[in-house]
C-alpha cells in the first residue's frame, strides 16, 4: 500500500471516529423505472422533486452510475448482493407471484452483512426477489428484521383497485389478470389483500419513520431499505399528490415518491441522526418507454427499459451525508454493485466470502477521489453463457457486441429501441465515446481514429478476462411458476384466485 493510501486510510478512520459516537446509519432509496432524465436535478423541466433536488444540492450527484440489468428483479439482486445477477441466478427476466425460485438464501445481502454488528434492519416497499413456499425468499429470511410491502410489482395482479384521486379517475396502464390481487405483507403475514394503493405511501412513511425513531432512541445503528413502487406503471398517487403537477400521472406519482423522501429526511433530522446517516438514492432500471409520457424519460440517453443502451441502465444516483460528503457532481464510474462494499467498509463489516463484482466508493465519496471501477458490464434481461456480454464500458468508451430492442422501449421513434429491432451481432463491436456522444448515435470508425484497433484490443481483453471469471448460477426464474404459491390470505378458499381477499 503506497503512502497516499496509508494517509488516506488513517484520515478516513479519524473522520469516522471523531464524527460519530456510533456506527453510521444507512438509508437506501430505490426508485422503480425512473429514467436518467426524470428528476428536476437532472434537468427535467416539469418534474416536482424538491426533496430529491435537496439531496442532490447537499450531496454528491452521479452522472455515470449504472444498474446491472434493464429490468427489475435482477437489478435488485445486484443492489443487495454486490454481484451480477448471473451469479445469483436471477435471470432471465423477472420473478412473478407464483415463481418457484427467488434470491438464493446462500446469497449475502447488505442486511446480512450488517446484522452481526448489531444493526436494526428493515425493508419497506417492493421486494420482487421471490416469495416461494411458505415465504422462503421474503426479506425476513434475507437479513431484515422487518418487512412491510408487496412481494412483487403492483401490475402483477388485477388493477381494479388502482385508481387515482378522486376515485373515479382510473390510473394509466394495464395489469395482469387471472392471478391474485396484490397483497400488503407485514413480515410473512398478509395484512391486506387487495392493498389500498392510495394509502400505501402514508403507511410506508409511518412505518419507516417509526423504525428510525425507535432505532435512534435505542441508540442502535440501522439500515432502512426503501424500494418504492413509484414510478412503475400503472401510476398512482393519493390525494396529497394527484393532480398537483403539470406532468400528469407520472409527475404526480413522482411527486408522491419525493414527498416520502422528504418525510424520511425529516425523521432523520428530528431524531438527531441525519449527520450520522448515509442516504443513497438511485433507480433499478431505465424508463418504460412503451408507456410514452407515462413511462419516464431517459434524457439524452438512448432507449430505455429492457435494452442495454445507456437509457436502459444508466441511472440517476445521489449520495447524501451532511458534514461528511461534500456537495458536488462526479463523472466517476460507479454502480449499484458498489453499494454493499461501500456500506460494509463504512460500518467496519466483513465482506461475504464470494466473488464480488462491486468495489467500495469511499475515496470518491469522502475525498473527491477517483473511482476504483474501471469498467461496467452489460447483460441483457435474458443473459446466456452462449452469447455472453452484450456490451462493455471501459473508461469513457462503450463497445456493443450485440444490440437488440425491447417491447418495453417501443414507445419512441428510434427503431433501434423497439421490439422490431432484432438481435444483431457486431464484429468488431460498435464503439462509442460516451462523453462526446452519450446518445450512442455515432459509432467511432477505425479509418478516422488510428488508435481504435488498440482500444478495441484492450476492451476485448477485459471482456475475455471477465467472462472467464463468470460462473452462471442456476436460473431461479427458470424453475417456473406454480399458481399454488401465489399469496392468498384465505389459503383454503374457493375458487382461486378471485376469493383471495381479506
Characterize the structure shown.
This protein has helices at residues 3-19, 50-58, 72-81, 85-88, 110-114, 197-217, 248-270, 310-313, 339-347, 362-367, 452-469, and strands spanning 25-31, 60-66, 120-126, 146-150, 184-186, 189-192, 222-227, 277-283, 314-320, 328-330, 334-335, 375-378, 391-394, 397-403, 424-433. By secondary structure, it is an alpha/beta fold. It folds into 2 domains: 23-375, Alkaline Phosphatase, subunit A (3-Layer(aba) Sandwich); 378-469, Arylsulfatase, C-terminal domain. Strands 1, 2, 3, 4, 5, 6, 7, 8, 9, 10 and 11 form an 11-stranded mixed beta sheet that branches. Strand 5 (184-186) and strand 6 (189-192) form a beta hairpin. Helix 6 (197-217) runs parallel beside helix 7. The chain is globular and about 65 Å long. The chain starts with a helix and ends in a 33-residue tail after the last helix.
Amino acid at each position: 500500500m503506497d503512502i497516499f493510501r496509508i494517509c488516506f486510510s488513517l484520515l478516513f478512520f479519524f473522520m469516522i471516529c471523531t464524527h460519530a459516537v456510533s456506527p453510521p446509519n444507512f438509508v437506501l432509496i430505490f426508485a422503480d423505472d425512473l429514467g436518467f432524465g426524470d428528476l428536476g436535478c437532472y434537468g427535467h423541466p416539469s418534474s416536482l422533486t424538491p426533496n430529491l433536488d435537496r439531496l442532490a444540492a447537499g450531496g454528491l450527484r452521479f452522472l455515470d452510475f449504472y444498474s446491472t440489468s434493464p429490468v427489475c428483479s435482477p437489478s435488485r439482486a445486484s443492489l443487495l448482493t454486490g454481484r451480477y445477477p448471473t451469479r445469483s441466478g436471477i435471470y432471465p427476466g423477472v420473478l412473478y407471484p407464483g415463481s418457484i425460485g427467488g434470491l438464493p438464501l446462500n446469497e449475502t445481502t447488505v442486511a446480512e452483512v450488517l446484522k452481526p454488528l448489531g444493526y436494526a434492519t428493515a425493508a419497506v416497499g417492493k421486494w420482487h426477489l421471490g416469495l416461494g413456499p411458505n415465504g422462503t425468499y421474503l426479506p425476513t429470511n434475507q437479513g431484515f428484521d422487518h418487512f412491510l410491502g408487496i412481494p412483487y410489482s403492483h401490475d402483477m395482479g388485477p388493477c381494479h383497485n388502482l385508481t387515482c384521486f378522486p376515485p373515479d379517475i382510473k390510473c394509466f396502464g394495464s395489469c395482469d389478470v387471472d392471478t391474485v390481487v396484490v397483497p400488503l405483507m407485514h413480515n410473512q403475514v398478509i395484512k391486506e389483500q387487495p392493498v389500498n394503493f392510495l394509502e400505501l405511501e402514508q403507511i410506508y412513511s409511518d412505518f419507516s419513520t417509526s423504525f428510525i425513531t425507535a432505532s435512534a432512541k435505542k441508540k442502535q445503528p440501522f439500515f432502512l431499505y426503501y424500494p418504492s413502487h413509484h414510478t412503475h406503471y400503472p401510476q398512482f398517487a393519493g390525494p396529497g399528490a394527484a393532480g398537483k403537477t403539470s406532468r400528469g400521472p407520472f409527475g404526480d406519482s413522482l411527486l408522491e415518491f419525493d414527498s416520502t423522501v422528504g418525510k424520511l429526511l425529516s425523521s432523520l433530522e428530528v431524531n438527531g441522526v441525519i449527520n450520522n446517516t448515509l442516504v443513497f438514492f438511485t433507480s433499478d432500471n431505465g424508463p418504460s418507454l412503451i408507456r410514452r409520457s407515462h413511462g419516464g424519460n431517459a434524457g439524452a440517453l438512448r432507449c430505455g427499459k429492457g435494452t442495454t443502451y445507456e437509457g436502459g441502465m444508466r441511472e440517476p444516483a445521489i449520495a447524501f451525508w451532511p458534514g461528511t460528503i461534500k456537495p458536488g457532481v462526479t463523472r466517476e464510474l460507479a454502480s449499484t454493485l458498489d453499494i454493499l462494499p461501500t456500506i460494509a467498509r463504512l460500518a467496519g463489516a466483513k465482506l461475504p466470502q464470494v466473488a464480488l463484482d462491486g468495489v467500495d466508493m469511499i475515496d470518491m465519496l469522502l475525498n473527491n477521489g477517483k473511482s476504483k471501477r474501471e469498467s461496467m458490464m452489460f447483460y441483457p434481461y435474458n443473459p446466456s453463457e452462449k452469447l455472453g456480454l452484450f456490451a462493455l464500458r471501459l473508461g469513457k468508451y462503450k463497445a456493443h457486441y450485440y444490440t437488440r430492442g425491447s417491447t418495453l422501449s417501443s414507445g419512441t421513434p428510434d427503431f433501434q429501441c423497439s421490439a422490431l429491432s432484432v438481435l444483431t451481432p457486431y464484429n468488431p463491436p460498435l464503439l462509442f465515446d460516451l462523453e462526446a456522444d452519450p446518445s450512442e448515435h455515432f459509432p467511432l470508425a477505425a479509418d478516422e481514429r488510428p488508435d481504435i484497433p488498440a482500444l478495441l484490443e484492450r476492451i476485448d481483453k477485459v471482456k475475455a478476462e471477465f467472462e472467464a471469471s463468470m460462473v452462471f448460477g442456476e436460473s431461479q426464474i427458470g424453475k417456473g411458476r406454480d399458481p399454488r404459491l401465489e399469496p392468498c390470505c384465505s389459503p383454503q378458499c374457493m375458487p382461486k384466485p378471485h376469493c383471495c381477499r381479506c
